Amino acid sequence: MSVSDLPDELWARVLELGAASAALGFRDLCCLAIASRRLRRLSLHPSLWSGLISRDFPSQSQPSSSSSSSQQQQQLDPKSLYRTKFERHKLRMAEARRRAVYEAEGRVLACRRRLTELEESMCAEGDRMKATAQELDSLERVRSASVALNVWQPQVVHGRQKQLVQQCTVPVDSRFSALHMELKVCKQQISTYKNAYNKEKLKLNEYEEALSRAKYHPMQNSNHTSPPGNEPQAKRKRLK
């Protein structure tokens, strides 16, 4: 006995078991509907699509409190009702995907803004450390000149060192210690900024990967990779 000799009752039971066990989905029933007229008639049975509604949309299959919505659902056959619920589900999923993309873009922008702030802070701290080092170098020359005044030197060198010491208007020793401390603080601050910058850079890479995953859409990417008209033309050329 061939498969086509099976009675409709047995085919209907097979389809019911397949839908109940999640072996058959709505795509499978749609494929069966275009296989033959008999399978189309059997795949359109209301009990199959009612079972799919209860299985795929359990939260939406509960009776609605609104009388108008319940009357509209009663007027639709189960397949049309499934199509309506599926289209609404697609819209909700697309909206959720858009929200995920917006949130990922916000995290990327915030991370880049933070990196820019850290770069500006490191540059400012670097300029401060450079100015401190220059002032420290000047005080070091004044300090060396004040010590050298007590040693015999030619008159020209002695006069130049004396002039250098007289031009200094701040107490050398106290200012020298303060500059050393400030230079140490600048180095520590720059090291802190660098560590924060590296961590923020890693976070930016993670956020950009999450953004690319949120933007990824298999159908859209496949359409962009190969133009729709190229492959059929190549096949025609080969057939010729």
UniProtKB/TrEMBL annotation:
Gene Ontology, cellular component aspect: nucleus; plasma membrane
Extent of Low complexity compositional bias: 59-75
Region (Disordered): 59-79, 212-240
Residue intervals of the F-box domain: 4-50
Secretion signal, residue range per the UniProt entry: none
InterPro entries on file: F-box-like_dom_sf, F-box_dom
Transmembrane regions listed in the UniProt entry: none
Regions of compositional bias (Polar residues) in chain numbering: 219-228
Protein name: F-box domain-containing protein
Source organism of this protein record: Hordeum vulgare subsp. vulgare (Domesticated barley)
Gene name for this UniProt entry: LOC123444684
